[in-house]
Input
Amino acid sequence: MKKNSRKNGDKRTKLLVHENGKIYFSKENERRFYFLLTIIMLLAGILYKTGLL
Output
């Protein structure tokens, strides 16, 4: 299995598509990406408020 592919049933879907100098994400990966950014920002805010950052 390739790094940028995921098996979905019998067909493979690409996780990232690079065309014309742009990177396109699948809807699922876009949601994961922004969820992780939200968690990172939440943790950074907590650390900042407690004075650890």
